[in-house]
Known about the structure:
This protein is α/β, with parallel strands linked by helices.
Amino acid sequence: MLILVTGATGKVGATLINDILQDPQWRDVRIRALCHNRVPPQHERIEIARGDIADAATVERAMSGVTHVVHLATCKEVPETVMDVAVKGLFWLLDAFRRSPSAQQFILIGGDAGIGHFFYEHDGPVTEAQPHMAYPGCYALSKVLEEVMLTQFGIQYGINACCLRAPWIMEKDDFRYTLSFGDDVFGGPDWKSMVPPDIATKCRANGTVPLLRDAHGRPLKRNFVHVTDLTRAILMALDNPATKNRLYNISMDEPVDYGVVAAHLKATRGLPSIDIPSGYHSNWLDNTRAKYELGWRPTYDTVRMIDAAFTYQRAADDPRKVWYPG
């Protein structure tokens, strides 16, 4: 098995590659990492394909002899490059895949941005049958186009493809920084912009956490997944015949409730909270299909996500870097 991994140096790609290299089940697997700038650490089972994913010739070379593709490369709110990476890049990958005599399975990591995240209200749990509903911005649109393109290649050419749709992916101390009122906030909302400047300053000083409320005034529920739960799902889908032309929600069993976050941090760390009103909507990704068909179960719930992030201690050679804002 030769797996082409795009986005190999991101949080998901790096974790996935490490999982494969460490697990005896995958000891015969070789990895080819398609890299534009950063490259993974050297290893006898890793080879590097360098170049731009938007370049057809680069992708054609990278696909040579590949049996499986795990497509992780993405681009956030960068209008100048998002369509090159997310649309053109995926097209070249799928086109090379469907013509390849060795290709066996294509796995795309999608995102809940394609179904609106917390921008739109739903009347129940969000299943895989939910129509696409991109929120404003180029990133959400790109996630819709990715999923649609993958589906159409399955229809047009009968390729063996599946999509694992993930919400916001957390690792290490990420979740702690999603709650920051400082410039070090990870992703959004940007809490300091939602309160007066003097209040933001006090919140930073006191370690205050936001208790985000939805459009109905209730503590907002928002979907997350830990990177290790996602990479386990990828490996459970890899070479699994049940996944052909299937879409799976890969998320925690229950969304993170900002009210629970505030209460837990108050009880365990004495941190105060502040109500933040919003027009956002609570939502709940239903992961039943992945549990039923893949036998997958998430190991992180809200409390474990909080405690892991707040107790994580970074090594001196592991500075916090955010390659993308969310």
